[in-house]
């Protein structure tokens, strides 16, 4: 099972990226290969429908997303929505990259929860024919601390992340076997 994760913050030390890295380690614990693309490091040019030639970084992202069995996207909550860099990356994608794939959405907000960005992300995934995982993960004020090993300090958050990842994996396994024809 191949999982691809995209960290949608353009900020060093972003809490959404730290959470995604932690999820990556949980997946490793399940012996699942997970690739994490951090958009802060892998710069993508601004999407334009006029550009027919894709940059090598864009092609890399599209190829790796296309080959994934499941996808996890993380975003900071910006003005009640997802970040510009994540939206830019998603604008390059179409149903051929996402259709039939389970998607787990993760956000970090300045307020207690970041439901708007999660709702927007799920809506984009629905438009690309992705299959939204039943749970999503939101961190916000009071749950954004990580220890030196990158483990969330909030025990309740760790439990919620475990449960959300577990459901995402059940969905990913089911879809890998059952509904390949959706892709
Ligand atoms: C441009 C901008 C817009 C933001 N808009 C919101 C918002 O609408 N709601 C909110 O709760 N926090 C908002 N914040 C705060 C961020 O969501 C918060 O700092 C979050 O932890 C950023 O995630 P990161 O640590 O992954 O970068 C905003 C921050 C910035 C820079």
UniProtKB/TrEMBL annotation:
Q: Which SUPFAM superfamilies match?
A: Flavoproteins
Residue ranges of the NADPH-dependent FMN reductase-like domain?
A: 1-141
Q: Name one GO cellular component term.
A: cytosol
Entry GO MF terms: FMN binding; oxidoreductase activity
Superkingdom, taxonomy of origin: Bacteria
State the family it belongs to.
Answer: Belongs to the azoreductase type 2 family.
- The protein here is known as NAD(P)H-dependent oxidoreductase
Q: Which organism is it from?
A: Paenibacillus lautus
Lineage of the species this protein comes from = Bacteria, Bacillati, Bacillota, Bacilli, Bacillales
